[in-house]
Description:
4 helices, alpha+beta
Amino acid sequence: VMVSSLASRPYAFSVLAFTIGANGEQEQAVGVCNCFEAFSTFTGKIIVNVHDCFVSKPFRGKGVGQSLLRGVEKEARVRGAGKITLEVLEHNAVAQKTYAKFGFAPYELADGLGRAVFWQKMIGPGPASASASASAGP
Length: 138
């Protein structure tokens, strides 16, 4: 269900990494990056957010993550994106090293304004609040 739901979204894409067999055919999926487009009102350009990035344990440290990120960047350029974003857990030093090696850095809107912090609000079932409806615009 998740795969078909993801595939039905036009602003989503995935980059997959596979082992290649002796016959040159893809054999086993070993990594994936699931990505979503957004739009930056600051730059007027598309943003690609890497929502999930995973490499199977036996294949970590072998360049699979870098290969996946190259695929993400290639697709982001095709889509006209101005930047790629992602979230990483603060204690996941291995992932942070991988992302930094590829050129990622903590997010700052402008020099001197400080780092941005990723926040969330969980939304449970139920109707939208009146204030959200009123502020949604015309």
